[in-house]
Structure to design on (164 residues):
């Protein structure tokens, strides 16, 4: 097998292995992830200018299992913030076991409060699944963040799987 980078729309690239018979589930999953990535990027573009994002204050959001340490996730996110020229405005760790970000026991409302109060222009999470395992709930959260005039950024975009 050889590796190839495929451009599906401007600015989006995924790496794939050429397989003469890729499974339909694999193709569907790749297309769904690219659709979500495009949806997030378009929401960001509508809500926040590129210039404003260049020097943004962001809230870091990490979801873990109860009693799992978030320190390695926050360390990686802080490094990404430095590389992007951003500033950390806050950190929110959610270990309450709720995978619906809008559940009353979730810590996600803390993120939205920080954004609505103007303390940050965006949120940085490790992966979409740190925000929600549900595609519908993830899209709903992206809309809410954009409606607040803020952006959502991921360390590993939807079309990619996190390492490890």
């Amino acid at each position: 097998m050889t590796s190839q980078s495929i451009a599906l729309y401007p600015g989006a690239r995924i790496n794939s292995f050429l397989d003469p018979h890729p499974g339909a589930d694999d193709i569907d999953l790749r297309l769904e992830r690219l659709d979500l990535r495009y949806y997030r990027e378009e929401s960001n573009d509508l809500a926040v200018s590129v210039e404003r994002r260049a020097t943004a204050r962001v809230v870091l959001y990490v979801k873990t299992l109860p009693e799992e340490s978030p320190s390695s996730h926050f360390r990686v996110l802080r490094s990404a913030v430095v590389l992007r020229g951003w500033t950390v405005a806050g950190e929110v760790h959610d270990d309450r076991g709720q995978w619906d970000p809008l559940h009353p026991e979730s810590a996600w409302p803390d993120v939205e409060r920080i954004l609505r109060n103007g303390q940050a222009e965006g949120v940085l999470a490790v992966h979409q699944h740190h925000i929600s395992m549900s595609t519908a709930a993830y899209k709903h959260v992206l809309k809410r963040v954009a409606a607040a005039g803020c952006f959502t950024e991921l360390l590993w975009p939807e079309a990619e799987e996190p390492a490890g």
